[in-house]
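input
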Amino acid sequence: MQRTGEGGRLAKRWQNSEVSMAYLVKLMARALSDLDYLYEWVGAEDSEAAAKWFNGLEEAIYSLEEQPTRCPLTPESNRYRHLLYGHKPHVYRVIYRILEQQKQVEVLHIRHGAMRGFEIEKLM
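output
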């Protein structure tokens, strides 16, 4: 099963077997935009270290396939969780929600941890 972003855009090139995957990780439009921005911002195309950091971020996001409830609830709302990635002062928050009935994790937004809290209405 391939992981796809909203609108069917392939979000990851590698595949997992359907048997071992507990949840499908789906990147919503805003999260895809955030990843595109971060890819450019860190210069992942031109720097091996930046590419390694970016790939690590992607791996962390897709690790939500297994045990997505391991991450804490966001302070903004108990309907969302956040995965923290990086080391201070460069910590990023991956904001997501779990859709249990569909066995799906929707990644909604990726933001720097030092930013003010997000507005829930703007996630959708």
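quick obs: The CA atoms of residues 5 and 27 lie 5 Å apart.
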